[in-house]
Amino acid sequence: MTKSAITIERVLDLIAAYGAHPAAWPDHEREAAEALLIAKPEAFEPALQEAVELDQMLMQDDQVPEPPAHLATTIIEGAPVAQKSAQRQSWLRSLFPMGLRLPTGAAIASLGIGLMAGYSYAGDTGFDAYLESDVTYTDTLDASFDDWLGDPEGGL
Amino acid sequence: MSGISELDQITKAAAGDKSAQAALVHRHMPIIYRVAYRMLREEAEAEDVTQETFLRAWKALPDWQPKAKFSTWACTVAINLCRDRLRKAKPVLMETPPETTDAALRPEEQLASKQAVSGIHAQIAALPDRQREALTLSALEGLGNKETAAAMGITVHALEGLLGRARRTLKSVLRADISKDEKQ
User: Fold this and answer.
1) How far is B164 from chain A (nearest CA, A)?
2) Chains A–B, number of C-beta pairs less than 8 Å apart
3) What is the pTM of this model?
4) Which of B148-170 are b and which e, b meaning 16 or more Cβ less than 10 Å from the residue's Cβ?
């Protein structure tokens, strides 16, 4: 609001609502209102005097106790706690600042290489190799117990 | 708030950052407690309202929209909680004002001062709820007119009406008290 736009009535309204002290008036009207107060003091004197008396009375209503010391602690204790998964994620992120895609890709690649190597080795030592080997296995227990113990002379 | 926006602080507090939560509490708790005390005139009640306001804040923070300042939102919650308590409490909660004697005053002056303080407490407490809320936030706690209006969910124009009526009521009552004292 410009200095010229404010009226005597509006300044009286401000005094009636917010009191005598311009600091309590709305920011955008303060400057214009103060200018009008200086320009026409007689228009505002009775209203200001009444408002000052009430302002002083209101200032006496400042007997508000301090919040008890434990209150802040109690409130903070009731605040939400960081989720563990979130903590774990942030820990992982701190390990891999470039993001989690790179280690995930590396893990999948390692798994693939491991599986391929495993299969190729299993091919060499698999069932076909068993069939082709010279080793003979007994499928019946027709040998005596001594055969299982080996040479009794040599001892165990 | 040094170097960190309120939204950043709220985001961190919502994520469980203890230092952001503590900063939020230390910054806003005193005004919430004072508003609650001025409305209810009872320390334990003011404590409960302050605690409840922050409990609601912790729940609201994850979905926080920066449409309003945290202080405005918190004052709105606190005022609503006070309204609920005042509605339930019959008769209106009042507490004996604390001792406020000034050693520099003579005994009769101390008595007069005590009566004046007690008088203004009682007169403010006797105002209609909305007028008392407006006066508490604006005149006693020094909130700006827009913030007060937002906290109360009314327009600035309506706020000025409430403040004007509150002040007129107080003036007439206090004037009547003074003239009564002068007659005695």
Assistant:
1) 4
2) 118
3) 0.67
4) bbbbbebeeeebbbbbbbbbebb
